[in-house]
């Protein structure tokens, strides 16, 4: 493979955003920021063996997810994704065709959101593929859906359903057998092709105030991040946590809490807002068929995350979930 030929093949056929001044092909990209908007930027990396296994995912699925997890961070800021850059470290056992397919996985999502690939970097590496995606988005200058914005008595809400991705990973790792074929495919798909909740983030951005976080490391961990940043507490009900039909089915013979509390990679949004704003949010989401569920409330109990179990026992949850240095 030739580095320069490969980069030539990444040149987009079309540019969606009129504000791109210089895209792929020079020393750096140039774009014009929109007036009255703040620029929002995030970067997340995926490493072969840590975030995906080459034999368990197609290159297209890996590319899709590498972009999706970053769009999810943009959604958690109430922002709209506009541009992305891709840095890729390539070992010799990845063929050019695999890499072009990986980019196709990204194009699928980028087309949906009319995002432009405006640059990146290509290097070789000894062993595992590493793909790092940077996304730039824009948000109305007054919108700040920060982890620190929770207030006492707020409603705690979550989009979609929780725990599917982690159960899907357990299937891929042969730690879980699911007989129902449709359920098995659903769970694996939720792991490989998470849906970033940009539309929900947009609605939340219209509220007077909201705290917001996306669920990458697990619900318990993300709730801890909100209570730490807001110096408050959260209490939530196990019975109210939205669980898919596929995961509910597994409840009969598995302890599913490890998936929905600590598993991670749900890429749903979790946040808090006033009771009044919650009513507006719920109504707006219902109108657009966006699933959003109230799971608890914000308390004055500093930095504690309390779960009311289905049997009404109350337990304090530790900040455990996915942690790169704890496994
Ligand atoms: N190596 C680093 N250097 C500088 N800032 C970092 C570094 N790693 C993380 N950060 C910053 O720390 C904050 C939290 O990052 P983190 O990656 O935990 O958030 P996240 O992307 O929402 O979570 P996840 O990576 O699990 O998806 C962000 O502001 C991020 O930019
Ligand atoms: C092969 C394999 N083993 C384990 C996992 C689970 N996993 C990896 S990183 C992560 C948290 C989010 O990542 P980050 O914090 O880097 O954004 C999780 C839950 C996986 N996806 N693939
Ligand atoms: Mg990150
Ligand atoms: Mg995040
Ligand atoms: Mg992230």
Characterize the structure shown.
This protein has 327 residues and is an alpha+beta fold. It folds into 2 domains: 3-140, 2-Layer Sandwich (60s Ribosomal Protein L30, Chain: A), CATH 3.30.1330; 147-316, Phosphoribosyl-aminoimidazole Synthetase, Chain A, domain 2 (Alpha-Beta Complex), CATH 3.90.650. Helix content is 32%, strand content 25%. The strands form 3 sheets. It has a 7-stranded mixed β-sheet with strand order 8-10-7-11-9-12-13. It has a 4-stranded mixed β-sheet with strand order 3-6-4-5, with helices on one face. It starts with a helix and ends in an 11-residue tail after the last strand. The mean pLDDT is 97. One magnesium ion (MG) is lined by residues 73, 76, 214, 216.
Instruction: Name the shape in a single word.
Output: globular
Radius of gyration based on Cα positions: 20 Å
**First CA to last CA: what distance?**
35 Å
- CATH topology annotation of the largest domain: Phosphoribosyl-aminoimidazole Synthetase, Chain A, domain 2
Which CATH architecture of the largest domain is right?
Alpha-Beta Complex
Mean pLDDT: 97
Tally of individual helices: 10
Beta-strand content: 15-25%
Number of domains: 2
Brief write-up:
The protein has 10 helices and 13 strands.
Could you list some keywords that capture this structure?
about 325 residues, alpha+beta, 60s Ribosomal Protein L30, Chain: A, Phosphoribosyl-aminoimidazole Synthetase, Chain A, domain 2, seven-stranded mixed sheet, 10 helices, 13 strands, about 25% strand, globular, binds adenosine-5'-triphosphate, binds thiamin phosphate, binds magnesium ion
């Amino acid at each position: 493979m030739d580095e320069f030929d490969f980069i030539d093949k990444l040149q987009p056929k079309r540019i969606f955003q009129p504000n791109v001044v210089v895209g792929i092909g020079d020393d750096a990209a140039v774009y014009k920021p929109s007036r009255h908007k703040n620029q929002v930027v995030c970067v997340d990396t995926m490493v072969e063996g840590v975030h995906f296994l080459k034999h368990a995912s197609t290159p297209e699925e890996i590319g899709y997810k590498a972009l999706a997890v970053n769009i999810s961070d943009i959604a958690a800021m109430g922002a709209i994704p506009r541009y992305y850059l891709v840095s890729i470290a390539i070992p010799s056992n990845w063929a050019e065709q695999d890499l072009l397919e990986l980019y196709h996985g990204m194009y699928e999502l980028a087309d949906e959101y009319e995002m432009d690939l405006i640059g990146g970097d290509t290097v070789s590496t000894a062993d595992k593929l590493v793909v790092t995606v940077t996304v730039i988005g824009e948000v109305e200058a007054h919108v700040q859906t920060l982890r620190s914005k929770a207030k006492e008595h707020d409603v705690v809400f979550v989009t979609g359903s929780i725990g599917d991705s982690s159960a899907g990973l357990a299937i891929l790792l042969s730690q879980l057998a699911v007989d129902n074929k449709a359920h098995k495919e659903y769970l694996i798909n939720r792991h490989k092709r998470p849906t970033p909740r940009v539309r929900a983030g947009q609605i939340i951005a219209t509220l007077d105030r909201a705290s917001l976080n996306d669920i990458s490391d697990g619900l318990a961990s993300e709730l801890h991040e909100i209570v730490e940043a807001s110096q408050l507490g959260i209490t939530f009900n196990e019975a109210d946590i939205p669980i898919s039909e596929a995961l509910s089915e597994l409840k009969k013979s598995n302890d599913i809490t490890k998936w929905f509390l600590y598993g991670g990679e749900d890429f749903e949004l979790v946040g808090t807002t006033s009771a009044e704003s919650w009513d507006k949010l719920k109504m707006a989401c219902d109108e657009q068929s966006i699933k959003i569920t109230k799971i608890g409330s914000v308390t004055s109990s500093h930095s504690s995350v309390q779960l009311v179990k289905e049997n009404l026992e109350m337990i304090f949850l530790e900040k455990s979930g996915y942690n790169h240095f704890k496994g």
